[in-house]
Specification:
By secondary structure, this protein is an alpha/beta fold. The chain has a single domain, classed as Rossmann fold (3-Layer(aba) Sandwich). The strands form 2 sheets. A 4-stranded parallel beta sheet has the order 4-3-5-6, with helices on both faces. The chain is globular and about 45 Å long.
Length: 163
């Protein structure tokens, strides 16, 4: 089973997510994930793309994460409490193509070295009906392919750069 298929394990009317008083059923969550998926595909997000997710914990975070995984993209969650320098390091190191965010990032002097990313505001994703239905993952999609890159550094600073 692939991570994005987990939402299909619950009974349609059972509560899957509680977020700030919102009680969201598995059926509603699956519908929102499909909308996010189609919209993300329409924005150009494709299998293998590394997509940063800059958001607080919320239902929309879950929708975005699972939608990215269902496209075969690699989600890179970024802690919204990191400094610009730390965020810039992750964006460069992970090879990010798209940032999905509630709060626009100020791409300032830390990005002068040519990092090119496209920012997308995820807030309206649930309200957008895309004319495009994202295709299913190919039948030969490998369930061992990474769906996320998680950056942690504890209290000792930046993690070592990728090699």
């Amino acid at each position: 089973m692939l991570v994005h298929e987990l939402i299909q394990r619950g009974r349609a009317d059972d509560i899957a997510i509680v977020d700030n008083g919102r009680r969201i059923t598995y059926a509603d969550a699956a519908q929102s994930i499909k909308k996010f998926r189609n919209h993300m595909y329409a924005l150009g997000i494709r299998q293998g793309d590394r997509v940063a997710l800059f958001s607080r914990n919320s239902a929309e975070f879950i929708y975005t994460y699972l939608a990215a995984a269902s496209l075969g993209a690699i989600c890179v969650p970024i802690n919204f409490q990191l400094s610009h320098r730390e965020t810039a390091f992750i964006l460069r190191d992970a090879g990010i193509k798209h940032i999905l965010t509630y709060t626009p990032l100020e791409l300032d002097e830390h990005f002068e070295d040519g990092v090119e990313v496209i920012q997308h505001d995820i807030e309206p994703f649930a309200d957008v009906d895309s004319d495009i239905d994202a295709p299913d993952l190919p039948a030969d999609f490998d369930s061992n392919t990474p769906c996320a890159i998680i950056y942690t550094s504890g209290t000792n600073g930046n993690p070592p750069a990728r090699r």
